[in-house]
Write a structure and sequence with these properties.
The complex is a heterodimer of chains A (256) and B (293).
Chain A: E1 10-19, E2 22-32, E3 37-41, H1 48-55, E4 65-73, E5 76-77, H2 83-89, E6 90-93, H3 105-109, H4 111-116, H5 122-135, H6 139-142, H7 155-167, E7 173-177, H8 185-198, E8 203-208, H9 211-217, E9 220-225, E10 228-234, H10 235-240, H11 245-251
Parallel strand pairs in A: 3-8, 3-9, 6-7, 7-8
Antiparallel strand pairs in A: 1-2, 1-4, 4-5, 9-10
Chain B: H1 3-10, H2 13-35, H3 38-52, H4 58-62, H5 76-106, H6 111-125, H7 128-143, H8 148-172, H9 176-183, H10 189-217, H11 221-224, H12 244-252, H13 257-287
Helix pairs in contact in B: 3-13, 5-8, 5-10, 5-12, 6-8, 7-8, 8-10, 9-10, 10-13, 12-13
Classes of the chains: A alpha/beta (256), B mainly alpha (293).
Chain lengths: 256, 293
């Protein structure tokens, strides 16, 4: 059911996830190629967010959160790595923009280095800040106010700042958990444009509630229902000729 | 549906006028009753000003007390003493209280947390005189004499519940999204606490410390048999030391009119200091803008 690829960047094998005894994900299998945008869509409570939180092993931080199965990044089992390494390779952006309120815009971008106590030369940190903010399409708007607090920006700008913060760690994969659900339509379309541009640099897994958004930005789409991966494949194909009846019903608005 | 009837009862002018009247009346009552809260403070301040302002002058805050019968003199020893005793109490109790508050907000459901929370509530309700006796047994008896240090121990114990509660409440309000953001960048847990959670809640913690300081700076009972008081200038924490509440207590209960006046002056000074620290806390909080959303 999944697309066979020569060398997937990310591979999920029989991934199951639990909260205490409750099974949230049921044997999910799929692989993601390099430099793609993959949307994960499905109705509320289907396990979309849990799925991406398994990928950077944030799920196990939640009370009662456990996972089974394996996730391979470049062929390497993420369960064999420590969580710190995993999360430095796999960045994440959350539903609500969450810049650090005590930090300036500049400090927010390099927060991954500051908070981890990694010392970098001033020249390099300047480069990282400009490069990350440019990639996040925010540089022109904030280059004169880098010393203002991150919370001084608008919601949409804050979310791009959070994207820049994740990009500054030079991740291989970027996880976006409904990144536009707290934003207005204008800010949403800016983030969507950005996601399309970003795939040059980083592979993106994006959870979305919004069917149209999945259609607009993603190369491949995963449709999830009640913890199962119902269908996975090229977005174009899935939206024109869905293979599963449930996918078709979801896409035509019969539920969800 | 009888729309005519509905229209009549919904647009009944008299009923609407009555509603407006009732609304205004309840507004007046609530305003009046809430303003009663201000009355005691205003009365205390006015009374202190009337009785105390005449004793406050340059000598009052720079000179030592004079013997009975001699005019003039000041309470500089008590001012310095209060500052030293309160400062020492802060040094002793802020670290355990802040760390305790962090622990309670991070592990709200652990057994130790239940114990800490319970003890903290009991400690908060413990009469200050009892804490004074405890400090006397703990410090004064082994040392063999009264000391400022023992007073600071007593006040420090009183301060712990205030600062601990303030820290816990502040940190609990910090959005979990911030911890997640830091954790998602591979920041280890202890650094998330030290570099994200505590700095974000810093203004609330400092505010709690300042308010706690004002609370203990007026305490008399715990100092009666610890710091004890001294008519001399003493900056040595190991020896008996005067403080503003002690001066007020001793002078106010003396038979001399001169000393009564000094007690009024000291009371005014103490309330001004409390007022000043409160202002400082407010300025600090507003300057630190941003903070938690």
């Amino acid at each position: 059911m999944s697309i066979k690829t020569e060398k997937p960047l990310l591979q999920l094998n029989n991934l199951s996830a639990y909260f205490h005894d409750k099974r949230i994900l049921k044997d999910v299998n799929f692989s993601v190629e390099n430099s793609k945008v993959v949307s994960i869509m499905g109705p509320s409570g289907c396990g979309k967010t849990t799925l991406i939180r398994c990928v950077n092993r944030m799920h196990e931080m939640s009370p009662g959160g456990t996972a089974a199965g394996s996730i391979l990044l470049d062929g390497e089992d993420l369960n064999q790595l420590n969580t710190i390494t995993v999360r430095r390779k796999i960045g994440m952006v959350f539903q609500r923009p969450n810049p650090f309120p005590t930090m300036t815009i500049y400090e927010n971008v390099i927060a991954g280095y500051l908070l981890n106590g990694i010392k970098i030369p001033k020249k390099l940190s300047l480069e990282i800040v400009e490069d990350s903010l440019s990639k996040a399409a925010l540089w022109d708007e904030v280059k004169d106010s880098l010393n203002k607090k991150g919370t001084y920006l608008s919601g949409g700008q804050q979310q791009r700042l959070c994207i820049a913060r994740a990009l500054a760690m030079n991740p291989e994969i970027l996880l976006l958990d409904e990144p536009t659900s707290a934003l207005d339509p204008k800010a949403t379309s800016r983030i969507e444009e950005l996601v399309v541009q970003l795939k040059k640099n980083v592979t993106i897994l994006m959870v979305t509630h919004n069917i149209a958004q999945a259609a607009r930005v993603s190369d491949d789409t995963a449709f999830m229902y009640l913890g199962e991966l119902v269908e996975y494949g090229s977005t174009k194909e899935m939206f024109t000729v869905p293979k599963d009846k449930r996918t078709e019903e979801y896409l035509t608005g019969k539920f969800g | 549906m009888d729309t005519v009837y509905l229209k009549r009862i919904l647009e009944d002018e008299k009923a609407i006028r009555q509603r407006i009247l009732k609304n205004n009346l309840s507004g007046v009552i609530i305003t009046f009753i809430s303003s009663l809260v201000v009355v005691p403070l205003v009365l205390i301040l006015a009374y202190l000003l009337i009785n105390g302002i005449s004793s406050i002058n340059f000598d009052f805050i720079t000179q030592l007390p004079k013997p009975v019968g001699e005019a003039g003199g000041g309470i500089v020893n008590a001012i310095a003493g209060s500052a030293i005793i309160v400062f020492l109490a802060l040094v002793l109790s802020v670290p355990p209280a802040v760390f305790g508050g962090i622990y309670l907000s991070e592990y709200p459901d652990s057994k130790l947390s239940a114990l800490v929370r319970f003890s903290n509530e009991i400690l908060q309700g413990t009469p200050s005189i009892v804490i004074g006796i405890f400090a006397w047994v703990l410090v004064v008896v082994p040392m063999g004499h009264f000391s400022a240090f023992s007073g600071s121990v007593a006040l420090g114990i009183m301060l712990i519940p205030i600062v601990l509660k303030a820290t816990e409440e502040t940190l609990k309000r910090i959005p979990p999204e911030l911890r997640e953001a830091a954790a998602s960048m591979g920041v280890p847990y202890h650094r998330v606490i030290l570099k994200v959670v505590v700095p974000t809640g810093l203004k609330g913690i400092v505010n709690g410390i300042l308010l706690g300081a004002t609370r203990i700076s007026g305490e008399t009972a715990p100092l009666l048999f610890t710091a004890f008081g001294s008519p001399f200038m003493n900056l040595h924490a190991g020896k008996p030391m005067s403080s503003l509440p002690l001066v007020i207590y001793n002078y106010a209960t003396s038979p001399y009119d001169e000393w009564h006046k000094l007690a009024w002056g000291a009371s005014l000074l103490l309330i001004l200091a409390v007022f000043g620290i409160n202002m400082l806390a407010r300025i600090f909080v507003s300057k630190q803008g941003g903070g938690t959303q």
